[in-house]
Amino acid sequence: KINGQIIIEEFNPKTLKGKFVIFLEKILRLGSKFYYPQSLKDKFTENNFDVELFDIKNSSYYLLAIKLVEL
Predict the structure, then answer these.
(1) Bridge-based pairing state of the strands 60-67 and 49-54
(2) Which phi and psi (to 5°) does residue 40 adopt?
(3) What is this structure's pTM?
């Protein structure tokens, strides 16, 4: 949907808390994937989204992506 918005809260794998969450999820075999802020931003940008990142230095960060008009 054009101008559709996605908001994602993700654990930051660069922080101690983020690394701990990843460690626990691996032990529990939950199969979760965690992305570094720039990596997740790049995935959305490649798919025609305008992306902003917030609080990337905290244990979790937020990504706001807005679908751009396709030409």
Answers:
(1) antiparallel
(2) -65, -40
(3) 0.81
